[in-house]
């Protein structure tokens, strides 16, 4: 990213190749719509290019990139006047390939039932593999706050999952 910031735009291809799939996965899990997520992924990389001068090396690229993705996601909902709480339950199952494993299906159904913030935290941490420090940068909060919220999110997910088993 430092090279792109310095004006060597040919390195943007490398960034896109490296990070477009994780960003697409993140957006798809949040929107439940693969086609919209593809468009939003393109918007993320266009915005990275547009705002390359604002990139701060000390903050880390992944946090900066996911913050852009998160902002685009929220803009997408406000432009369409869609409230994330009104997204159809089980939308993730309809648009994302899920293994034919019952536990996986249960997990995705339970994720659908979480509030947006908890779902997003779990997606970033467990599905995208981001560290709590990186997530704290995305949410502009402390690592301790993220750990606390993550504990609550996982506890709620666990409770929902075991309710489905009974």
Question: What does this protein look like?
Answer:
It is a single chain. This protein is mostly helical. It has one domain: Arc Repressor Mutant, subunit A (Orthogonal Bundle), CATH 1.10.10.10. The chain has nine helices and no strands. It has helices spanning 2-5, 12-31, 34-50, 61-79, 91-95, 102-113, 116-127, 132-139, 143-165.
Detail the topology: elements first, then pairings.
Elements: H1 2-5, H2 12-31, H3 34-50, H4 61-79, H5 91-95, H6 102-113, H7 116-127, H8 132-139, H9 143-165
Shape: globular
Determine the CATH topology: Arc Repressor Mutant, subunit A
Q: What separation lies between the terminal Cα atoms?
A: 49 Å
SSE succession: HHHHHHHHH
CATH class: Mainly Alpha
Radius of gyration using CA atoms only: 17 Å
Based on DSSP secondary structure assignment, what is the total number of beta strands? 0
Q: Helix share of residues? A: over 70%
Q: How much strand?
A: under 5%
Q: Note the main sheet.
A: none
Number of helices: 9
> What do the pLDDT scores average to?
83
Question: What is the CATH superfamily label?
Answer: Winged helix-like DNA-binding domain superfamily/Winged helix DNA-binding domain
- Structural class category: mainly alpha
CATH architecture: Orthogonal Bundle
- Low-pLDDT ranges: 82-100
Tally of distinct domains: 1
């Amino acid at each position: 990213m430092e090279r792109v910031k310095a004006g060597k735009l040919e390195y943007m291809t490398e960034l896109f190749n490296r990070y477009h799939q994780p960003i697409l996965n993140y957006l798809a899990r949040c929107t439940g719509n693969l086609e919209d997520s593809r468009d939003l992924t393109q918007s993320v990389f266009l915005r990275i290019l547009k705002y390359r001068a604002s990139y701060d090396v000390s903050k880390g690229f992944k946090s900066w990139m996911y913050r852009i993705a998160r902002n685009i996601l929220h803009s997408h909902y406000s432009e369409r006047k869609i409230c994330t709480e009104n997204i159809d339950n089980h939308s993730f199952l309809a648009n994302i390939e899920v293994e034919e494993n019952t536990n996986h299906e249960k997990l995705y159904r339970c994720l659908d039932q979480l509030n947006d913030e908890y779902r997003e935290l779990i997606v970033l941490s467990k599905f995208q593999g981001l560290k709590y420090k990186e997530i704290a940068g995305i949410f502009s909060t402390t690592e301790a706050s993220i750990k606390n919220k993550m504990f609550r999110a996982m506890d709620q997910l666990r409770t929902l999952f075991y309710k489905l088993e009974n």
